[in-house]
Amino acid sequence: DLWQAKGHIRFQDVEFGYASGRTILPDFTLDIPAGQTIALVGTTGAGKSTLAKLVSRFYDPTRGAITLDDVDLRDLHPKDLRRAIVMVTQEAYLFSGTVADNIALGKPDATLEEIEAAARAVGADAFIRSLPDGYATDVNKRGGRVSAGQRQLISFARAFLADPAVLILDEATASLDMPSERMIQDALQTLLADRTAIIIAHRLSTVAIADRVLVMEHGRIIEDDTPAEL
Ligand code: ATP
Ligand code: MG
Questions:
Q1: What is each CA distance from 22 to 36, 42, 86, 106, 218, in whole angstroms?
Q2: Is 1 a member of any domain?
Q3: Does 13 reside within a domain?
Q4: What residue owns the CA closest to ligand 1's atom 1?
Q5: What percent of the residues of the chain are helix, what percent strand, and what percent coil, each to the nearest 5?
Q6: Residue closest by Cα to atom 17 of ligand 1
Q7: Domain containing residue 146: CATH number
Q8: 39-48, 77-86, 171-180: least confidently modelled range
Q9: Do the bridges between strand 37-42 and strand 212-217 make them parallel or antiparallel, or are there none, so unpaired?
């Protein structure tokens, strides 16, 4: 049977340091109710990406625990974990292959109809159809003929198709023109609905749509508020 996660994430007294060096998170405690959108901001080296990697289990805490629906991530079956928690990073937006293949990474057995529905949901369908071979267009590793904003939309379609309970997004820093910026924000709103999200936010517009903004410094939260209060 497939386990269906709700998406309640909790860090309990988490300590973490990379094997080679100093402690990055000395004592981190945070409760993220299912369905909440968190924008994570803070200075470079604060530990934002480290936090994202811990939730995705690239690493485990050296002390304390991270739980999903009150289950320690270390006790989850890897298959359940991969289905429940998906991380979208700016380095891995596209792989070589067709646009359809790239979207289907979120659900390898997806039909073309499902792939197209995911693209439509995040507003990527129109530009994909305008590509030389539509969904069958080959994209090379660096994204070749698709722009930074379009790459991000394709990765959103992939995440939408995967439909995880928890989405972790390391937002691209690349600057976009206004129409693309607008499209990304609309797509993001659709993508965030009905799931827990932790976004390492680089855009003010993303911070604005979050339920809660956490400001990090030296592995600690120094502010925890709604966007309006900041
Ligand atoms: P940025 O805004 O620049 O992306 P960040 O808040 O994401 O910063 P992290 O990448 O989490 O910060 O890094 C936190 C600290 O951990 C930094 O001091 C960094 O040098 C260190 N660090 C990150 N990755 C590793 C690693 N693989 N091995 C050792 N130290 C690392
Ligand atoms: Mg980072």
A1: 31, 19, 28, 35, 11
A2: no
A3: yes
A4: 44
A5: 35, 25, 35
A6: 45
A7: 3.40.50.300
A8: 171-180
A9: parallel
pLDDT in tens, 123-133: 999 999 999 88
- Name the token pair of 127: 């530009």
pLDDT at 4 over 80: yes
Tokens found for residue 211 = 């339920």
ipTM value > 0.90: yes
169, 152 in Cβ contact below 8 A? no
The residue assigned the tokens 């855009």 is 203
Give the C-alpha separation, 19 to 4, whole Å: 33
Nearest CA to ligand 1 atom 10: 49
Q: Could you say which ligand is closest to the alpha carbon of residue 43?
A: 1
Mean pLDDT value across the chain: 92
Give the Å distance between the CA of 172 and the centre of ligand 1: 17
What is the DSSP code (8-state) at residue 230?
-
The answer to whether 73 touches 33, Cβ cutoff 8 Å, is: no
Which residue, 52, 57, 63, is CA-closest to 15? 63
Q: Is residue 173 part of a domain?
A: yes
Please state whether the predicted TM-score (pTM) of the whole model is above 0.80: yes
> Ligand 1 pocket by C-beta < 6 Å: which residues?
18, 20-21, 24, 42, 44-50
- Answer whether residue 69 is part of any domain: yes
